[in-house]
């Protein structure tokens, strides 16, 4: 379909008008696409004509506008020219005013500059004062620290270090000297720790060397306390006052608020011996300065290494305990060796007890009890070994008293000592055996030196002296005038006195063993029975059966044993009196002296019978008989006459025998005679 030319030209004109409006209203940088649409079309010439026409219209509008405003523009230029002149004048005035102002403000500027400098100095001074306010405590604290280190007051120095590190240095700021101080703090702590540990080692070494002095003082105090207790007991028995005294418990040591340590910072740990003598009323723990232990404990606690310190202390003390518990090889030779051994052990545990009650955790009760159990077993083993070498009853008795004092001392500090007393009972058996050996020698000496003759007494004084040694009562003999003879020989009162001495010796060992009177009485009676049935019996058997003992001596032995037998009930009364146990107590052990002396008497009688047989045999063997003769001569031989004379003298001796022994001896003697007479008659 063909388009209408007129319609097409109208559309082209409208399109060109749109493009022109778009060019006028669009940014020049963005008109490219618009112009491209013009060049892409076929009416380029028409558009150019349209564009030139639009330009001409705008030029005419501009010209109209310029013509309309030209007069105002000229007037404005004229006004500007007038203003330029006035501006030149104003500029000159301003320059002059500025010059004057500059001249006038120089002094003010100088003053303001001085004021600025003064204000700057004031600000710097204030800043300096503020910084010094924070730094001076640091310097003062560090100076205090140096002084404490110089005087070896390490625990306060450690507290000062802690305050310096956590309070003063953070407030002071980051200064070089603060940095140096902060770097020195770990080294100072290490130095304090090392020095305190060195002091502790010196203390432990000093304690090890002087533990015997500490133990000696503690045992003296225990002995004094026991004496006071005994005196108080006697007062109570008489209606006196109650018991006083007792072990003084050591008080826990506290540090003061300024960080001071107990006692002196530089004490060596042990007071001088002179101080010990002057301060005799002090306890053993008062002789020791424990400040090195307290100091080191507090220092390690602050450093957070308390466990390390506790382990070190306990290990070192265990090692020292092993050294203390090792006795010297010749300890058994003298009592002083045992004393030193006990003093060291007591000193060791006195120290541990004081540390237990004053340090609150450095050692505990379980540790001390474990250490005591170990020490007790080793001590008992050592005592059993070394006491077995002892053969002197006096030394063994002194050792027993020392062990009792040792046990009482440690029991006063709360340590169980029952095993020690059990060991003393074992030692008592050994003591009894040694006593039996000693009394065996004494009895033999008495029997060997005796003259086996009745004791002659010429005066009342001699008679009373013998009666004081032996309980003999004979009303008929007392009525006879002096001089007179006692029926027994000297060995009777001597043996009786020796038996009493033996009983006393047994009592001495049985005392202070924490046993009842009944138990002590039973122990003494059993020991006395051993003395009578074994030792004295063997000695009497020895005296009866030794060579060259005549019939007179045998008869005197019979008489002596008879009187000793009669004295047995006096011995029982004597034992009851010294043990305070009534003689009629149920289950009380009886003395076997009666059977002992009866056995000795029977042995003597057998010996007399044997000797008579031998003597008669000797007489008959010397005679020369004619056994083939048909009838005797009617007269006795000289040998038989001598035998009869011998028997007559022998029977004269038999008349001194007690009534209970005489018939038996006479019957046996007559049997011997009749047997000898039958031989004489048969042969003569």
TrEMBL record:
- Exocyst complex component EXOC6/Sec15 N-terminal domain location is 50-219
Looking at the keywords, is Transport present?
A: yes
- The Exocyst complex subunit EXOC6/Sec15 C-terminal domain covers 419-672
Q: Does the keyword Transport apply?
A: yes
Q: Enumerate the InterPro entries for this protein.
A: EXOC6/Sec15, EXOC6/Sec15_C, EXOC6/Sec15_C_dom1, EXOC6_Sec15_N, EXOC6PINT-1/Sec15/Tip20_C_dom2
Q: Where is this region: Disordered?
A: 229-270
Sorted alphabetically, the Gene Ontology BP terms of this entry are:
Golgi to plasma membrane transport; intracellular protein transport; vesicle tethering involved in exocytosis
State the family named in the UniProt similarity comment for this chain: Belongs to the SEC15 family.
Function according to Swiss-Prot or TrEMBL: Component of the exocyst complex involved in the docking of exocytic vesicles with fusion sites on the plasma membrane.
The protein's name in its UniProt record: Exocyst complex component
Q: Which organism is it from?
A: Denticeps clupeoides (denticle herring)
Quick one: which gene encodes this? Answer: EXOC6B
